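Question:
Write out your own:
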Amino acid sequence: MEKKLTIKEYIFIGSMLFGLFFGAGNLIFPIQMGQLAGSNMLSATIGFIITAVGLPFLGIVAIGLSRKESLYDLASKISPKYGAFFTIALYLTIGPFFAIPRTATVSYEVAFASYLEPHQLQLVLFIFSILFFIASLWFSLRPSGILTWVGKILNPIFLVSLALLIVFSIIQPMGQVSEVPVVESYQAGAFFTGFLEGYNTMDALASLAFGIIVVRTIQNLGVTKPSSIARNTIIAGVFSLALMVIIYASLVYIGTTSQGLFSISANGGTALAEVSNHYFSGFGAVILAIIITVACFKTAVGLITAISEMFVTIFPDKLSYNQYVYIFTGISFVVANLGLSQIISFSLPVLMFLYPLAITLILVTILNPLFKDKAIVYQVTTIFTLPFALLDFLHALPEELKETLHLDFVSEWAKEFIPLFKIGMGWFIPSLIGFVIGFILSKKRK
């Protein structure tokens, strides 16, 4: 008889889910989206929550249903070469190319940037990132229980500080939502703009990479059937799901009302620093900055460790764990010195490419009982999605680069002929057609 989890075990798993998906970096995107969406914040928030909360949750459920041991095993349903490509691309994205450097730059923006003169910014970022990644390297080479201890102490303090910020923003709002202007990108289709903004959290990608951690935790508690794992994940996730929705919605509100006192910030880190200074003054803002920095540091070490271990697994005869740690830490340091705004700008095309592939993989995996997990459905759906994900990648490239490479005509052609391309969803109809064709073929093949 399958074991039933206790309330204590459900709370434990729910806390793990929240810890996996909500890092300090997740603070910056909803708060800036609130500044941009203005009085259209509600529809933008709903779109954001779907991709920032709903999709990661479905990703965990998909891993639980798939009976696979890793993302590589799951993506290899399409083909082994595709599985290797997708796994490597995803891990590098949530690792040294974007997510790890972002941990350092978010910390820097909140802790230092608002107090510096423009000519000091780059030098201080360089010094801060050196210290940040030297410490990350040291802990990554020596996995230690101190990080777990820091997490247990830090997370409650972090949540209390955030709760205070939210309460102050409600009691003493900086402005009125109805009076905040809406920038052009959120005037029409705020829902879909918010939907795409949720890509920046990278949590749906992370759910495919680290979902196996949650699945194994549930298995270790005595639950083994895939359907029971998925059901228990859903039950345990209700708490963390609700908490994340409340936090994201509150941060969007804070960002929107901040327009009563501040102009639109260059990035969410700057916006968070300004709001913290307003409500907590000097000392309180410094404490919040320290908490966020330590939280980001813990996330950086966790990502460096996990990704180095994964690359040792994928390429067992190439480099050692320690060598991967040095390489990924070095890359993260270099990328971090581009600055938070540049990192976000460069990550957007990659996310526009990877997210359609991740979304379709998650949804097809959840629907696999309908077609008995036959590979043809995964393959045809991905074949139909891939070209349109590539078009999204080209369209999201920085304008200067598109002009240099003479790629402007691609975006103009796609806007005219591909349905939903203007709102970043050009892949949706082709992937649906691919799924239907794959499903029909699965019924005709033994």
